[in-house]
Amino acid sequence: MAKLILSMDGLVLKEIPLTKERTTIGRKPHNDIQIDNLAVSGEHAVIVTILNDSFLEDLGSTNGTVVNGNPIKKHFLQNNDVVELGKYKLKFVGEAAAAVGAEKADFEKTMVLRPAAMKAAAEQAKAMTGGAAPQPAPQAAGAARATASQHAAVSATAAGIADKDPRPAPALAARPAQPLGAIQLLSGNNAGKELELSKPLTTLGKPGVGVAVLTRRPQGYFITHVEGANRPAVNGQQIGAAPHALKDHDVIELAGVKMEFFLKA
Amino acid sequence: MDLTQTLEIASCTDPGMVRSHNEDSVAADAANGLVVLADGMGGYNAGEVASGMATTVIVTEMQQVLASARPYDVDPRTSQEIAARLLREQVLKANTSIYQAAQSQPQYAGMGTTLVVCLFYDNRVLVAHLGDSRLYVLRDGKFKQVTRDHSLLQEQIDSGLITLEQAKNAQHKNLVTRALGIDPSVEPEMHEYRTKPGDIYLLCSDGLCDMVDDDDIGMALQALGGNLKLCAQQLVQMANDNGGRDNVSVILVRVLREYPAARGVMAKVFAWLK
After folding, report:
1. Nearest CA to B42 among B54, B59, B28?
2. What span, in angstroms and rounded, lies between the C-alpha atoms of B250 and B202?
3. Tens digits of per-residue pLDDT, B183-203?
4. Stretch 62-101 of chain B: residues touching chain A, C-beta under 8 Å
5. ipTM of model
């Protein structure tokens, strides 16, 4: 997991793991990282973390956000980037570096760990915890885990185990936040009723008559026919077997019920 | 016994969003109630070769032995059903083929593959697996994992070194402790379970379960169980939408009805006499 190291005048104040999708930074107490200094705005910046990638965005702060000496509005954080907020410095340590300092590519592929290496790793880990109390403190467990994985990595490479694809995986493309969609029933007994589409997929219709699924994807919402003789129609046009992309205010007709799809602002 | 009318099978395999080629391999033989999924590893294209060999060898060899025997036949020497022995033998054959190819051809050195195989017969399913490819089942609305990975991570969870929560963010999800074709011999883990009409079985490579939460996989199976083909595509799409960092493969098997073994009266008498 990626983390930030907060420091002032070269003194490390604390380490903050980036566990949340949005980590806010600012002077006000409701921020995830509160920095009580007048040079820092109430809501100064936010770090959005998607899988292994973190993005820093300035929230229109008075004094701005500086990364590696350059003022930024939006920045893709890389290992060892230094974010400056007034006198404070936040050093970003990426996921792979945070864990073992080994090359990330080595960890992406499935590899075989032979029993001998496995045993050695387990023993090493055991030696680290060294007959500690039955319920070790979380930090101790964390340390043991780091050692075990580090050792495993070493044994795996020592055993000359082939990995799947020697090229490192390219970074994932950034994804903009997607607006939430909803449908409102226009006819039938429940006319006027609204349904938020917050789940990755929502099924609609009656089994046996006509069932469709609405999927929430990074590209937007799609409707797909699942079963039944009755295919759904979008804006009066029956859809085929392939998923159909939904636009704001499309009208869906399914098993005799009309409903409108719309995006919530 | 032909199971084509009893089992509905759909599969889907995809290289994902990052990898340039697909090292997963899937195969199904509905008539014999056999499904096989393998996730290969090894440099260049050796991973594909290993997984392809595993699925082909197991399916063709099983077809041959099942042409003259039935899985629920009883071996007179051990007085046990032959299913487990037959399946294990074919898995070992695949292991030998891959191991020898890896030994004799330098470009295949070190190749291997994970494996999950299901053989359906007599209202039961026999599962053999190696590595971190998994079997899940959806029964009566409950979705659960059937196999336990042979991985460093799983061993650490079992020994209490890390919690399930920590495992989600672990760095070494990819280290498997057993695989096909790496050593001259291998011991597949085998179990047998009773099936129930309506069950949906999901075989998948780690490209699915690493990218998509079990809850979301279960939801997709429940929502789209009516259309297995679409459900398989949806699962692959979910993995790709979440980043698709590895090859993604799924096989879905729905049990449509009961399929008890058609044991003859004589066979019953013999069984009773023993």
Report:
1. B54
2. 7
3. 999 999 999 999 999 999 999
4. none
5. 0.76
